[in-house]
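@channel sequence for tomorrow's demo:
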Amino acid sequence: MSTLIQDIVRNATQTSHRRLDMALASLDLSRPRYYAGFLRGQAEALFPFEAALETGGIDEVLRDWPQRARTPALEHDLTVMDVSCDPLSVPHFADVPHMFGAVYVLEALRMGARGMLMRLARQQPDSCAIGATQYLRHGFGKRLWPLFLAALESHPEVQAAPEGVVEGAQVAFGMFESTLIPVVGIAAE
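structure tokens (generated this afternoon):
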């Protein structure tokens, strides 16, 4: 029995994933300042990632990409919260496996957003932040994760180069971590 690519990526990036999860868990998103910082950090990493994926032709590889792209949802939330951002440089994805690695992280973050949204709603149900949750709610009710995993496991270029998927995921985790560190630092003070 062969190893699934998702298992290879999960094992190779578990430390990065855990660091990102711990940093996100440390934020009190019910506080508008921290929620705004969280949105800013997400935008600074997400905007260049989605731009790079689209330039690389992700819509040719994942036909449901228009349903997955969250830039418009995050732009909406930034506007509601009156937050600006300074996106990181647009990365370059050398090939399809690297793009799949980046999408792996974006989809994993989407799944983690559910818990953050529920925590936010429980802590501050009347907060202005509740009106700025399109990003966190994006994709609810859709089977985006299982559809992505099916594409990941069956794409011939990905099967031939799972190390490229790992590399793309590591770049993605690194970018999201780098934009979250300042937010966590402010919260710690």
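heads up for whoever presents: The chain has a mean pLDDT of 88.
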